[in-house]
Write a structure and sequence with these properties.
The protein is mainly alpha-helical. The chain is about 75% helix and about 0% strand.
């Protein structure tokens, strides 16, 4: 239940109790904040802080009001100043982590969530949001390591079951994942359970069954971005490109930081010769997962298509350095070297590609990525 895992967890903490109750201007700011009049609350908090710049709790409240307006960069600045004055305040640090999370900077969010957990090991909100960060970054083993003890302590926690089940299935532990799917289904038909079923079926080649489950997931919860992403992936496999593009765009409208949707949409647009649009989506994907091999490869292919040979060379070289068994990348790099007149380097890369291909065939299957 990823939606459950992150929905109510995304609320910032309002530090009312720590504020001096006698200050009428501050009382008014808090009342404005609590009634949802955020623009007025921001002005009132800032007016108070001009006279009391060291009031860490009030500065944190200002951060919360800014974050609620989607002004995450400003919120991060206020939370950081609050922590400068009160470094041990876990509520403020959690709010800072949330602001990074909502702005899509998962690396910084992870660092802050981990600090919250160090100070408060039992903080469930921090644990689940940290697990969701790991999941979005493709770090499934870290999700499993984090959530297995929590799942063992509370077997009925469906949010944990969904996050953990997703990571297990991605790690080819389908049997353990199936147990968690059954647990979620036992609580009633849900979009999250249907999505896990679709992922499992797709992994074993049951595309028709996966398509039915993912469509049921969307019917149950049209706002589940991951379901639209998987829908697009299945449609891509069946060459329904227009519908696939629409599905990926729907996912990104729901979650602008949905990595797989951005990656797949970027690849689809590149294949259609829509370079500028593809570049935007691949840049978005790399913003979520810096250095991701698949996104870097697609960007390198785009640079090749646009004859930006030096840039393509740099990208392909980084890929084969990080993934030396990536056969196709070696082949593409050889072609780029040929364009650049570096024939000795091109020959070396072709030799590597041929050797990897021969090894894959000898092993009975292709290792192309």
């Amino acid at each position: 239940m990823r939606r459950c895992a992150v929905g109510w967890l995304l609320c910032a903490c309002l530090c009312v109790a720590q504020a001096p109750p006698a200050a009428s201007s501050l009382k008014r700011a808090i009342e404005l904040h609590q009634s949802g009049k955020l623009t007025e609350a921001v002005k009132a908090y800032r007016a108070y802080l001009q006279e009391h710049p060291s009031a860490a709790a009030v500065r944190s409240n200002l951060g919360a009001a800014l974050a609620a307006q989607g002004r995450f960069a400003e919120a991060i600045g206020e939370y950081s100043l609050a922590l400068d004055a009160d470094a041990g305040n876990s509520k403020v640090r959690l709010n800072l982590a949330l602001a990074h999370y909502k702005s899509g900077d998962l690396a910084l969010a992870v660092g802050q969530f981990e600090k919250v957990r160090q100070a408060e090991p039992a903080n469930r909100q921090a644990a689940l949001l940290l697990a969701d960060c790991f999941l979005r970054r493709g770090e499934d083993k870290r999700v499993i390591e984090l959530l297995e003890p929590i799942a063992a302590a509370d077997a009925g926690d469906l949010a944990v079951a969904y996050l953990l089940g997703t990571a297990l299935i991605r790690q080819n532990q389908e049997e353990r994942g199936a147990i968690l799917i059954q647990k979620i289904m036992g609580a009633g038909d849900s979009a999250e359970a249907r999505l896990l079923l679709a992922v499992t079926k797709l992994r074993v080649g049951e595309e028709s069954g996966a398509l039915l489950d993912v469509r049921r997931a969307i019917e149950l919860n049209p706002n589940l971005a991951e379901a639209h992403t998987l829908h697009g992936q299945i449609l891509t496999k069946s060459a329904e490109t227009a519908q696939a593009e629409a599905a990926f765009r729907k996912a990104l409208s729901l979650n602008p930081y949905e990595f797989d949707a951005a990656l797949q949409l970027g690849a689809l647009l590149r294949q259609q010769g829509r370079g500028p649009e593809a570049r935007v989506e691949l840049g978005r994907a790399l913003g979520v997962r810096r250095g991701d091999i698949r996104a870097t490869y697609q960007l390198a292919m785009l640079e090749t298509a646009e004859e930006n040979n030096e840039k393509a060379r740099e990208l392909f070289e980084s890929i084969v350095k990080d993934a030396p068994d990536f056969t196709e990348a070696h082949g593409r790099l050889a072609a780029v070297y040929t364009r650049l007149g570096r024939l000795n380097d091109a020959g070396r890369e072709r030799e590597i590609a041929n050797r990897l291909e021969a090894a894959a065939q000898a092993a009975g299957g292709s290792k192309k990525k």
